[in-house]
Protein 1
Amino acid sequence: MTRKKTLHDADCPGTGQGSLISAPIADLHVHSTASDGVSPPEDLVALASERGLSAIAIADHDTTRGVRSLLNGASGIRNQLDSITKNGVEVVPAIEINSDWQGRELHVLGYFVPLEDGPFQDLLKELRDVRKRRIDDMIERLCQLGMPVPKDRVLELAKGESIGRPHIAAVMVENGYVSTIGEAFDRFIGRGKIGYVEREHLSPEESVRAIRESGGVAVWAHPGTTRADHLLPDLVARGLKGLEAYHPEHGREDCERYLNLAAKHNLCVTGGSDYHGSSKSEGEDLGNVHVPYETIARLRSLSTLA
Ligand code: AMP
Ligand code: FE
Ligand code: FE
Ligand code: ZN
Protein backbone atom coordinates (compact mmCIF):
# COMPACT_ATOMS: atom_id res chain seq x y z
CA MET A 1 0.00 0.00 0.00
CA THR A 2 1.33 3.43 -0.83
CA ARG A 3 0.42 5.85 1.86
CA LYS A 4 0.48 9.61 1.44
CA LYS A 5 3.52 11.19 3.05
CA THR A 6 2.47 12.14 6.52
CA LEU A 7 3.51 14.52 9.19
CA HIS A 8 4.64 11.53 11.18
CA ASP A 9 6.73 10.05 8.38
CA ALA A 10 8.17 13.13 6.83
CA ASP A 11 8.17 16.16 9.04
CA CYS A 12 9.41 14.78 12.28
CA PRO A 13 12.52 12.74 11.69
CA GLY A 14 13.90 10.43 14.31
CA THR A 15 10.60 8.90 15.28
CA GLY A 16 11.56 5.52 13.97
CA GLN A 17 9.06 4.93 11.23
CA GLY A 18 9.43 5.47 7.51
CA SER A 19 6.59 5.22 5.02
CA LEU A 20 7.92 1.99 3.52
CA ILE A 21 7.76 0.11 6.80
CA SER A 22 4.36 -1.44 7.32
CA ALA A 23 4.42 -1.55 11.13
CA PRO A 24 0.93 -1.31 12.62
CA ILE A 25 -0.28 2.24 13.04
CA ALA A 26 -3.10 4.07 14.79
CA ASP A 27 -4.89 7.37 14.24
CA LEU A 28 -5.73 8.50 17.77
CA HIS A 29 -7.87 11.57 17.05
CA VAL A 30 -11.00 11.11 14.97
CA HIS A 31 -14.48 12.68 15.09
CA SER A 32 -17.77 10.98 14.16
CA THR A 33 -21.33 12.13 13.51
CA ALA A 34 -21.90 11.89 17.26
CA SER A 35 -20.27 15.34 17.39
CA ASP A 36 -19.09 17.39 14.41
CA GLY A 37 -17.62 14.72 12.15
CA VAL A 38 -19.37 13.73 8.91
CA SER A 39 -18.76 9.97 9.07
CA PRO A 40 -20.84 7.64 11.25
CA PRO A 41 -18.69 5.42 13.50
CA GLU A 42 -19.23 2.34 11.33
CA ASP A 43 -17.97 4.24 8.28
CA LEU A 44 -14.89 5.40 10.18
CA VAL A 45 -14.09 1.79 10.96
CA ALA A 46 -14.57 0.76 7.33
CA LEU A 47 -12.39 3.62 6.12
CA ALA A 48 -9.72 2.82 8.69
CA SER A 49 -9.70 -0.78 7.52
CA GLU A 50 -9.37 0.37 3.89
CA ARG A 51 -6.46 2.61 4.82
CA GLY A 52 -4.62 -0.18 6.61
CA LEU A 53 -4.93 1.32 10.09
CA SER A 54 -4.81 -1.14 12.98
CA ALA A 55 -6.64 1.19 15.33
CA ILE A 56 -8.44 4.50 15.66
CA ALA A 57 -9.58 6.48 18.68
CA ILE A 58 -12.99 8.11 18.30
CA ALA A 59 -12.58 11.32 20.31
CA ASP A 60 -15.83 13.22 19.83
CA HIS A 61 -16.51 16.52 21.56
CA ASP A 62 -18.29 15.90 24.88
CA THR A 63 -19.88 12.61 23.88
CA THR A 64 -19.01 8.92 23.73
CA ARG A 65 -22.17 7.97 21.88
CA GLY A 66 -20.23 7.20 18.70
CA VAL A 67 -18.00 4.70 20.44
CA ARG A 68 -20.94 3.33 22.36
CA SER A 69 -22.90 2.67 19.19
CA LEU A 70 -20.17 0.23 18.13
CA LEU A 71 -20.89 -1.88 21.20
CA ASN A 72 -24.29 -2.84 19.79
CA GLY A 73 -24.37 -6.55 19.29
CA ALA A 74 -21.22 -7.05 21.32
CA SER A 75 -21.65 -9.40 24.25
CA GLY A 76 -20.11 -9.79 27.66
CA ILE A 77 -19.12 -7.25 30.23
CA ARG A 78 -16.68 -4.68 28.95
CA ASN A 79 -13.70 -3.64 30.99
CA GLN A 80 -13.01 0.09 30.78
CA LEU A 81 -9.51 -0.54 29.43
CA ASP A 82 -10.73 -2.72 26.55
CA SER A 83 -10.86 -1.44 23.01
CA ILE A 84 -13.70 -2.48 20.75
CA THR A 85 -12.74 -4.49 17.69
CA LYS A 86 -14.89 -4.09 14.58
CA ASN A 87 -14.05 -5.20 11.09
CA GLY A 88 -10.50 -5.97 12.22
CA VAL A 89 -9.97 -2.41 13.47
CA GLU A 90 -9.49 -1.62 17.14
CA VAL A 91 -11.48 1.36 18.37
CA VAL A 92 -10.25 3.09 21.51
CA PRO A 93 -12.96 4.87 23.52
CA ALA A 94 -11.97 8.53 23.82
CA ILE A 95 -13.25 12.06 24.31
CA GLU A 96 -12.16 15.60 23.48
CA ILE A 97 -13.02 18.33 25.96
CA ASN A 98 -12.55 21.90 24.75
CA SER A 99 -11.36 23.91 27.74
CA ASP A 100 -10.67 27.58 28.07
CA TRP A 101 -7.49 29.15 29.35
CA GLN A 102 -7.74 32.94 29.57
CA GLY A 103 -9.75 33.20 26.37
CA ARG A 104 -7.67 30.65 24.49
CA GLU A 105 -8.71 27.19 23.43
CA LEU A 106 -7.03 24.35 25.28
CA HIS A 107 -8.36 20.96 24.26
CA VAL A 108 -7.88 17.86 26.38
CA LEU A 109 -8.20 14.35 25.00
CA GLY A 110 -9.21 11.50 27.29
CA TYR A 111 -8.44 7.90 26.35
CA PHE A 112 -10.17 4.86 27.87
CA VAL A 113 -12.86 6.97 29.51
CA PRO A 114 -15.90 5.09 30.89
CA LEU A 115 -18.86 4.58 28.58
CA GLU A 116 -21.20 3.48 31.36
CA ASP A 117 -23.47 5.78 33.35
CA GLY A 118 -21.70 7.49 36.22
CA PRO A 119 -20.12 10.79 37.22
CA PHE A 120 -18.08 11.15 34.03
CA GLN A 121 -21.08 10.64 31.75
CA ASP A 122 -23.07 13.05 33.95
CA LEU A 123 -20.39 15.68 33.39
CA LEU A 124 -20.48 15.13 29.61
CA LYS A 125 -24.25 15.57 29.65
CA GLU A 126 -23.85 18.88 31.47
CA LEU A 127 -21.32 20.03 28.87
CA ARG A 128 -23.72 19.09 26.06
CA ASP A 129 -26.54 20.99 27.76
CA VAL A 130 -24.33 24.08 27.88
CA ARG A 131 -23.70 23.62 24.14
CA LYS A 132 -27.44 23.51 23.42
CA ARG A 133 -28.13 26.72 25.31
CA ARG A 134 -25.23 28.46 23.62
CA ILE A 135 -26.46 27.44 20.15
CA ASP A 136 -29.77 29.17 20.90
CA ASP A 137 -27.87 32.34 21.84
CA MET A 138 -25.75 32.20 18.70
CA ILE A 139 -28.81 31.70 16.48
CA GLU A 140 -30.34 34.79 18.08
CA ARG A 141 -27.16 36.80 17.53
CA LEU A 142 -26.87 35.75 13.89
CA CYS A 143 -30.52 36.65 13.35
CA GLN A 144 -29.83 40.15 14.71
CA LEU A 145 -26.96 40.34 12.22
CA GLY A 146 -29.38 39.62 9.37
CA MET A 147 -28.40 35.97 8.97
CA PRO A 148 -31.32 33.86 10.15
CA VAL A 149 -30.23 30.29 10.78
CA PRO A 150 -33.17 27.90 11.24
CA LYS A 151 -32.65 25.88 14.41
CA ASP A 152 -34.45 22.84 12.95
CA ARG A 153 -31.88 22.64 10.20
CA VAL A 154 -28.97 22.98 12.67
CA LEU A 155 -30.39 20.11 14.73
CA GLU A 156 -30.96 18.05 11.61
CA LEU A 157 -27.36 18.52 10.50
CA ALA A 158 -26.03 17.91 13.98
CA LYS A 159 -27.58 14.40 13.93
CA GLY A 160 -25.64 13.44 17.02
CA GLU A 161 -26.09 14.79 20.48
CA SER A 162 -23.16 17.19 20.74
CA ILE A 163 -24.03 20.36 18.87
CA GLY A 164 -21.37 22.89 17.97
CA ARG A 165 -20.42 25.87 15.86
CA PRO A 166 -19.49 23.66 12.88
CA HIS A 167 -23.19 22.75 12.55
CA ILE A 168 -24.19 26.41 12.53
CA ALA A 169 -21.42 27.09 10.02
CA ALA A 170 -22.78 24.38 7.72
CA VAL A 171 -26.22 26.02 7.68
CA MET A 172 -24.61 29.41 7.01
CA VAL A 173 -22.98 27.87 3.94
CA GLU A 174 -26.31 26.32 2.84
CA ASN A 175 -28.01 29.68 3.17
CA GLY A 176 -25.32 31.42 1.14
CA TYR A 177 -24.08 33.77 3.89
CA VAL A 178 -20.57 32.38 3.39
CA SER A 179 -19.07 29.99 0.89
CA THR A 180 -17.15 27.72 3.25
CA ILE A 181 -17.25 26.60 6.87
CA GLY A 182 -13.81 28.13 7.30
CA GLU A 183 -15.14 31.48 6.10
CA ALA A 184 -17.99 31.27 8.62
CA PHE A 185 -15.43 30.91 11.42
CA ASP A 186 -13.07 33.55 10.03
CA ARG A 187 -15.72 36.21 9.52
CA PHE A 188 -18.51 35.53 11.96
CA ILE A 189 -18.37 32.73 14.49
CA GLY A 190 -14.69 32.29 15.37
CA ARG A 191 -13.62 33.40 18.83
CA GLY A 192 -13.97 37.17 19.20
CA LYS A 193 -15.89 37.56 15.92
CA ILE A 194 -19.19 39.42 15.72
CA GLY A 195 -21.43 36.33 15.84
CA TYR A 196 -19.46 34.51 18.52
CA VAL A 197 -21.09 33.72 21.82
CA GLU A 198 -18.93 32.40 24.65
CA ARG A 199 -19.96 29.18 26.29
CA GLU A 200 -19.02 28.06 29.76
CA HIS A 201 -16.00 25.80 29.62
CA LEU A 202 -14.22 23.64 32.11
CA SER A 203 -10.77 24.89 32.96
CA PRO A 204 -7.89 22.75 31.67
CA GLU A 205 -7.24 21.57 35.23
CA GLU A 206 -10.88 20.53 35.65
CA SER A 207 -10.80 18.62 32.36
CA VAL A 208 -7.62 16.77 33.28
CA ARG A 209 -8.97 15.96 36.74
CA ALA A 210 -12.32 14.71 35.45
CA ILE A 211 -10.65 12.40 32.94
CA ARG A 212 -8.14 11.15 35.47
CA GLU A 213 -10.74 10.56 38.18
CA SER A 214 -12.82 8.56 35.70
CA GLY A 215 -9.88 6.20 35.14
CA GLY A 216 -9.15 7.70 31.71
CA VAL A 217 -5.83 9.04 30.46
CA ALA A 218 -5.60 12.80 29.82
CA VAL A 219 -3.57 14.13 26.89
CA TRP A 220 -3.13 17.76 25.82
CA ALA A 221 -4.56 17.93 22.29
CA HIS A 222 -2.64 19.92 19.64
CA PRO A 223 -0.82 22.02 22.28
CA GLY A 224 0.81 24.09 19.54
CA THR A 225 -2.55 25.76 18.88
CA THR A 226 -2.82 26.95 22.51
CA ARG A 227 0.67 28.44 22.74
CA ALA A 228 0.78 28.19 26.52
CA ASP A 229 3.56 25.68 27.14
CA HIS A 230 4.27 27.16 30.55
CA LEU A 231 1.06 25.48 31.79
CA LEU A 232 2.56 22.05 31.22
CA PRO A 233 4.28 21.41 34.60
CA ASP A 234 1.10 22.24 36.50
CA LEU A 235 -1.07 20.08 34.24
CA VAL A 236 1.39 17.21 34.63
CA ALA A 237 1.21 17.64 38.39
CA ARG A 238 -2.56 17.32 38.10
CA GLY A 239 -2.38 14.09 36.16
CA LEU A 240 -1.81 14.91 32.49
CA LYS A 241 -0.17 11.87 30.91
CA GLY A 242 0.49 12.78 27.31
CA LEU A 243 1.08 15.34 24.59
CA GLU A 244 -0.39 15.16 21.10
CA ALA A 245 2.81 16.03 19.25
CA TYR A 246 1.58 14.75 15.88
CA HIS A 247 -1.32 16.84 14.62
CA PRO A 248 -2.16 18.58 11.32
CA GLU A 249 -1.92 22.00 12.98
CA HIS A 250 1.65 21.31 14.10
CA GLY A 251 4.48 22.22 11.77
CA ARG A 252 7.84 20.57 12.10
CA GLU A 253 8.97 22.94 14.84
CA ASP A 254 5.88 22.42 17.01
CA CYS A 255 6.13 18.70 16.55
CA GLU A 256 9.76 18.60 17.63
CA ARG A 257 9.14 20.93 20.56
CA TYR A 258 6.40 18.68 21.94
CA LEU A 259 8.44 15.52 21.37
CA ASN A 260 11.16 17.14 23.49
CA LEU A 261 8.74 18.33 26.17
CA ALA A 262 7.15 14.88 26.31
CA ALA A 263 10.58 13.31 26.85
CA LYS A 264 11.43 15.89 29.51
CA HIS A 265 8.23 15.24 31.49
CA ASN A 266 8.09 11.52 30.75
CA LEU A 267 4.79 11.87 28.89
CA CYS A 268 3.24 9.62 26.27
CA VAL A 269 3.45 11.01 22.73
CA THR A 270 0.21 10.70 20.80
CA GLY A 271 -1.04 11.86 17.43
CA GLY A 272 -3.89 11.77 15.00
CA SER A 273 -5.51 13.37 11.99
CA ASP A 274 -8.36 15.16 13.83
CA TYR A 275 -10.43 13.87 10.92
CA HIS A 276 -13.85 15.53 10.77
CA GLY A 277 -14.67 14.43 7.21
CA SER A 278 -12.91 15.25 3.98
CA SER A 279 -15.24 18.16 3.20
CA LYS A 280 -14.49 19.91 6.49
CA SER A 281 -11.82 22.56 6.73
CA GLU A 282 -10.56 21.05 9.96
CA GLY A 283 -8.16 18.17 10.35
CA GLU A 284 -6.47 15.90 7.85
CA ASP A 285 -7.72 12.86 6.01
CA LEU A 286 -8.16 9.76 8.17
CA GLY A 287 -4.83 8.09 8.91
CA ASN A 288 -2.70 10.84 7.39
CA VAL A 289 -1.32 11.60 10.82
CA HIS A 290 -0.68 8.54 12.92
CA VAL A 291 1.45 6.97 15.61
CA PRO A 292 2.77 3.46 16.19
CA TYR A 293 0.10 1.03 17.34
CA GLU A 294 2.06 0.37 20.56
CA THR A 295 1.11 3.85 21.75
CA ILE A 296 -2.25 2.38 22.75
CA ALA A 297 -0.63 -0.09 25.16
CA ARG A 298 1.38 2.76 26.66
CA LEU A 299 -1.80 4.82 27.14
CA ARG A 300 -3.57 1.88 28.72
CA SER A 301 -0.70 1.38 31.16
CA LEU A 302 -1.04 5.01 32.29
CA SER A 303 -4.61 4.59 33.53
CA THR A 304 -5.09 4.48 37.28
CA LEU A 305 -7.11 1.30 36.60
CA ALA A 306 -4.14 -0.51 35.03
P1 AMP B 1 -17.65 24.67 19.57
O1 AMP B 1 -17.30 23.38 20.23
O2 AMP B 1 -19.07 24.79 19.27
O3 AMP B 1 -17.10 25.86 20.30
O4 AMP B 1 -16.90 24.65 18.17
C1 AMP B 1 -15.54 24.38 18.14
C2 AMP B 1 -15.25 23.37 17.05
O5 AMP B 1 -15.35 24.03 15.80
C3 AMP B 1 -13.84 22.84 17.12
O6 AMP B 1 -13.75 21.72 17.93
C4 AMP B 1 -13.58 22.50 15.69
O7 AMP B 1 -14.07 21.23 15.41
C5 AMP B 1 -14.40 23.50 14.91
N1 AMP B 1 -13.61 24.63 14.38
C6 AMP B 1 -12.96 25.58 15.06
N2 AMP B 1 -12.38 26.47 14.24
C7 AMP B 1 -12.67 26.06 12.98
C8 AMP B 1 -12.38 26.56 11.67
N3 AMP B 1 -11.65 27.66 11.48
N4 AMP B 1 -12.86 25.88 10.61
C9 AMP B 1 -13.61 24.77 10.80
N5 AMP B 1 -13.92 24.26 11.99
C10 AMP B 1 -13.47 24.89 13.08
FE1 FE C 1 -14.50 19.55 16.06
FE1 FE D 1 -9.32 19.98 19.18
ZN1 ZN E 1 -10.54 17.21 17.52
Protein 2
Amino acid sequence: MERMFGKPIVTQEQMRARIREMGRQISADYTGKDLVLVGVLKGAYAFYADLARAIRIPIRVDFLVVTSSEGRGKAAGKVKLVTELTENIRGKDVLLVEDIVDSGLTAQRLLKTLARKKPRSLNLCALLSKDECRVVDVHVEYVGFAVPNQYIVGYGLDYRQKYRNLPYLAVLDKRDFHDE
Ligand code: IMP
Ligand code: MG
Protein backbone atom coordinates (compact mmCIF):
# COMPACT_ATOMS: atom_id res chain seq x y z
CA MET A 1 0.00 0.00 0.00
CA GLU A 2 1.15 3.55 -0.68
CA ARG A 3 2.00 5.72 2.24
CA MET A 4 -1.19 7.42 3.38
CA PHE A 5 0.60 9.98 5.47
CA GLY A 6 2.70 10.27 8.55
CA LYS A 7 6.23 9.41 9.52
CA PRO A 8 6.46 5.63 9.76
CA ILE A 9 8.13 4.66 13.02
CA VAL A 10 7.69 0.93 12.80
CA THR A 11 7.47 -0.80 9.45
CA GLN A 12 5.35 -3.83 8.60
CA GLU A 13 8.49 -5.97 8.39
CA GLN A 14 9.69 -4.88 11.82
CA MET A 15 6.29 -5.51 13.28
CA ARG A 16 6.02 -8.95 11.72
CA ALA A 17 9.40 -9.96 13.12
CA ARG A 18 8.69 -8.62 16.60
CA ILE A 19 5.26 -10.23 16.81
CA ARG A 20 6.73 -13.55 15.72
CA GLU A 21 9.20 -13.26 18.63
CA MET A 22 6.46 -12.32 21.06
CA GLY A 23 4.37 -15.28 19.93
CA ARG A 24 7.29 -17.61 20.47
CA GLN A 25 7.91 -16.21 23.94
CA ILE A 26 4.26 -16.40 24.97
CA SER A 27 3.98 -19.95 23.63
CA ALA A 28 6.95 -21.00 25.73
CA ASP A 29 5.74 -19.21 28.85
CA TYR A 30 2.21 -20.62 28.61
CA THR A 31 2.95 -24.19 27.59
CA GLY A 32 0.80 -26.49 29.73
CA LYS A 33 -1.37 -23.60 30.87
CA ASP A 34 -4.91 -22.64 29.95
CA LEU A 35 -4.42 -19.37 28.09
CA VAL A 36 -7.26 -16.99 27.36
CA LEU A 37 -6.15 -14.13 25.17
CA VAL A 38 -8.33 -11.11 25.95
CA GLY A 39 -8.13 -8.36 23.35
CA VAL A 40 -9.10 -4.77 24.04
CA LEU A 41 -11.16 -3.41 21.19
CA LYS A 42 -11.05 -1.54 19.09
CA GLY A 43 -7.39 -0.56 19.29
CA ALA A 44 -5.88 -4.01 19.68
CA TYR A 45 -7.71 -5.68 16.81
CA ALA A 46 -4.86 -5.77 14.29
CA PHE A 47 -2.14 -6.66 16.78
CA TYR A 48 -4.38 -9.24 18.41
CA ALA A 49 -5.09 -11.06 15.17
CA ASP A 50 -1.41 -11.28 14.31
CA LEU A 51 -0.29 -12.15 17.82
CA ALA A 52 -2.89 -14.89 18.23
CA ARG A 53 -1.68 -16.52 15.04
CA ALA A 54 1.94 -16.29 16.18
CA ILE A 55 1.13 -18.27 19.33
CA ARG A 56 1.71 -21.99 18.80
CA ILE A 57 -0.31 -23.42 21.66
CA PRO A 58 -4.10 -23.86 21.69
CA ILE A 59 -5.71 -20.80 23.23
CA ARG A 60 -9.16 -19.35 23.80
CA VAL A 61 -9.96 -15.93 22.43
CA ASP A 62 -12.12 -13.28 24.01
CA PHE A 63 -12.57 -9.53 23.83
CA LEU A 64 -13.50 -6.48 25.79
CA VAL A 65 -14.83 -3.39 24.11
CA VAL A 66 -13.89 -0.14 25.78
CA THR A 67 -14.64 3.40 24.80
CA SER A 68 -12.92 6.47 26.09
CA SER A 69 -13.48 10.15 25.62
CA GLU A 70 -11.26 11.78 23.01
CA GLY A 71 -7.82 12.77 24.13
CA ARG A 72 -5.33 11.30 26.49
CA GLY A 73 -4.12 11.75 30.03
CA LYS A 74 -7.03 12.84 32.17
CA ALA A 75 -9.57 11.99 29.48
CA ALA A 76 -8.27 8.43 29.44
CA GLY A 77 -9.57 8.08 32.99
CA LYS A 78 -13.09 8.04 31.61
CA VAL A 79 -12.80 4.55 30.25
CA LYS A 80 -16.08 2.79 29.75
CA LEU A 81 -16.30 -0.96 29.54
CA VAL A 82 -19.14 -1.63 27.12
CA THR A 83 -19.02 -5.42 26.92
CA GLU A 84 -18.46 -8.42 29.16
CA LEU A 85 -16.25 -11.40 28.50
CA THR A 86 -18.00 -14.42 27.04
CA GLU A 87 -15.51 -16.93 28.47
CA ASN A 88 -15.38 -17.88 32.12
CA ILE A 89 -11.82 -17.00 33.12
CA ARG A 90 -11.92 -18.33 36.67
CA GLY A 91 -8.85 -20.52 37.18
CA LYS A 92 -7.54 -19.74 33.69
CA ASP A 93 -4.39 -17.95 32.57
CA VAL A 94 -5.40 -14.61 31.17
CA LEU A 95 -3.30 -12.39 28.97
CA LEU A 96 -4.77 -8.97 28.33
CA VAL A 97 -3.78 -7.62 24.92
CA GLU A 98 -3.67 -3.83 24.49
CA ASP A 99 -2.61 -1.65 21.60
CA ILE A 100 -0.70 0.86 23.71
CA VAL A 101 -0.07 1.60 27.34
CA ASP A 102 0.26 5.33 27.82
CA SER A 103 -0.72 6.67 31.27
CA GLY A 104 -1.50 3.09 32.26
CA LEU A 105 -4.95 4.03 33.56
CA THR A 106 -6.91 1.97 31.05
CA ALA A 107 -4.82 -1.15 31.56
CA GLN A 108 -4.91 -0.76 35.34
CA ARG A 109 -8.68 -0.46 35.31
CA LEU A 110 -9.13 -3.49 33.05
CA LEU A 111 -6.68 -5.61 35.03
CA LYS A 112 -8.60 -4.82 38.20
CA THR A 113 -11.88 -5.81 36.56
CA LEU A 114 -10.41 -9.08 35.29
CA ALA A 115 -8.72 -9.89 38.61
CA ARG A 116 -12.13 -9.90 40.30
CA LYS A 117 -13.05 -12.90 38.16
CA LYS A 118 -10.26 -14.90 39.83
CA PRO A 119 -8.11 -16.09 36.95
CA ARG A 120 -5.17 -18.32 37.93
CA SER A 121 -2.78 -15.80 36.39
CA LEU A 122 -3.17 -12.40 34.81
CA ASN A 123 -0.65 -10.58 32.65
CA LEU A 124 -0.54 -7.67 30.27
CA CYS A 125 0.78 -7.57 26.73
CA ALA A 126 0.95 -4.38 24.67
CA LEU A 127 2.16 -3.68 21.19
CA LEU A 128 3.45 -0.29 22.31
CA SER A 129 4.43 1.36 25.56
CA LYS A 130 5.06 5.02 26.25
CA ASP A 131 7.11 4.43 29.37
CA GLU A 132 7.71 8.10 30.06
CA CYS A 133 3.96 8.84 30.16
CA ARG A 134 3.08 6.44 32.93
CA VAL A 135 0.89 7.92 35.65
CA VAL A 136 0.18 4.65 37.45
CA ASP A 137 2.54 1.76 37.92
CA VAL A 138 1.33 -1.07 35.74
CA HIS A 139 3.56 -3.97 34.80
CA VAL A 140 3.59 -4.81 31.09
CA GLU A 141 4.95 -8.34 30.84
CA TYR A 142 5.24 -8.33 27.02
CA VAL A 143 5.98 -5.13 25.11
CA GLY A 144 6.33 -4.97 21.34
CA PHE A 145 8.03 -1.62 21.09
CA ALA A 146 8.81 1.19 23.52
CA VAL A 147 7.86 4.43 21.81
CA PRO A 148 8.46 8.09 22.65
CA ASN A 149 5.72 10.49 23.70
CA GLN A 150 4.27 11.18 20.26
CA TYR A 151 0.83 10.53 18.89
CA ILE A 152 0.86 7.27 16.96
CA VAL A 153 -1.70 5.94 14.53
CA GLY A 154 -2.10 2.88 12.37
CA TYR A 155 -2.22 -0.86 12.91
CA GLY A 156 -5.32 -0.48 15.08
CA LEU A 157 -4.51 2.85 16.68
CA ASP A 158 -6.76 5.73 15.79
CA TYR A 159 -7.01 9.44 15.66
CA ARG A 160 -10.69 10.26 16.12
CA GLN A 161 -11.61 6.73 15.01
CA LYS A 162 -9.71 6.94 11.75
CA TYR A 163 -6.40 5.59 10.46
CA ARG A 164 -6.76 2.25 12.27
CA ASN A 165 -6.35 0.51 8.92
CA LEU A 166 -2.91 1.96 8.21
CA PRO A 167 -0.77 -1.18 7.85
CA TYR A 168 2.19 0.30 9.74
CA LEU A 169 2.72 2.57 12.72
CA ALA A 170 3.17 6.26 12.00
CA VAL A 171 3.59 9.41 14.02
CA LEU A 172 0.69 11.67 13.30
CA ASP A 173 2.10 14.96 12.14
CA LYS A 174 0.14 18.11 12.92
CA ARG A 175 -0.08 18.75 9.18
CA ASP A 176 -1.93 15.45 8.80
CA PHE A 177 -4.71 16.36 11.18
CA HIS A 178 -7.79 16.41 8.98
CA ASP A 179 -10.77 17.49 10.98
CA GLU A 180 -14.14 16.97 9.53
P1 IMP B 1 -3.77 5.04 28.78
O1 IMP B 1 -3.34 6.48 28.91
O2 IMP B 1 -2.63 4.10 29.11
O3 IMP B 1 -4.98 4.77 29.60
O4 IMP B 1 -4.13 4.81 27.27
C1 IMP B 1 -5.45 4.79 26.92
C2 IMP B 1 -5.70 4.61 25.47
O5 IMP B 1 -5.33 5.82 24.83
C3 IMP B 1 -4.98 3.52 24.71
O6 IMP B 1 -5.55 2.25 24.84
C4 IMP B 1 -5.15 4.06 23.31
O7 IMP B 1 -6.42 3.70 22.79
C5 IMP B 1 -5.09 5.56 23.50
N1 IMP B 1 -3.77 6.09 23.14
C6 IMP B 1 -2.76 6.45 23.94
N2 IMP B 1 -1.71 6.91 23.24
C7 IMP B 1 -2.09 6.84 21.94
C8 IMP B 1 -1.45 7.15 20.70
O8 IMP B 1 -0.29 7.61 20.63
N3 IMP B 1 -2.17 6.92 19.57
C9 IMP B 1 -3.44 6.43 19.58
N4 IMP B 1 -4.06 6.11 20.71
C10 IMP B 1 -3.40 6.32 21.88
MG1 MG C 1 -8.07 4.79 21.15
